Amino acid sequence: MDPKKLRKAYMQVLPHLNKALKHVQSELSDVPPSDFVLETNIKPYSSIKRKMLQHQIYNPIELPDLVRGRLFFSKDYNPKEVVSLLKKIFGKKVTKASKKDTNDCGLEYPGVTDVSLDCDGIQFELQLMPLEFQPHQ
């Protein structure tokens, strides 16, 4: 695919990505900062371009981690409790929650739970991690 078309497709979905990012940030703004730390971002264009070319994807919306984040939780919580909390906050927007021991690059991710959110057609990948993982990003 022509790189100019990839960039154009990305630029067209960027406002939707920003909206999804702000939605998740807003919904989680009231969780106690002593128990939760949220880090979010939009996947950089260079990474999106590489993945789209590698997997022959023409629409960036097909990538599951365009908008992503990590929610670090304190020792007072476990992953199941955090998933339950997210389901209460986001309702049907939570489309999947699963334990993840490796990522797509083969790196080990012991203790990480992935939660997929659907924010008006934009997939948001949220990784849940114990707070002690935060310095080891």
Find the structural class using helix and strand composition. Answer: alpha+beta
Give Rg in angstroms: 15 Å
Unreliable stretches covering 5 or more consecutive residues: none
The largest pleated sheet is described as: 5 strands, mixed
**N-to-C SSE series?**
HEHEHEEE
Proportion of helical residues: 25-40%
Question: How many beta-strand segments?
Answer: 5
What spatial form do the alpha-carbon principal axes imply?
elongated
- The end-to-end distance, rounded to whole angstroms, is 33 Å
Counted by DSSP, the helix tally is 3
Strand order of the largest sheet: 1-2-5-4-3
- If you average the pLDDT, what whole number results? 88
Proportion of residues in extended strands: 25-35%
What does this structure look like?
The chain is an alpha+beta fold. 35% of the residues lie in helices and 32% in strands. The chain has three helices and five strands. It has helices at residues 3-27, 45-55, 79-90; strands spanning 36-42, 67-73, 94-102, 108-119, 122-130. A five-stranded mixed sheet has the order 1-2-5-4-3, covered by helices on one side. Helix 1 crosses helix 2 (45-55). The longest helix has 25 residues, at 3-27.
What descriptors fit this protein?
137 residues; single chain; five-stranded mixed beta sheet
Topology:
Layout: H1 3-27, E1 36-42, H2 45-55, E2 67-73, H3 79-90, E3 94-102, E4 108-119, E5 122-130
Parallel strand pairs: 2-5
Antiparallel strand pairs: 1-2, 3-4, 4-5
Helix pairs in contact: 1-2
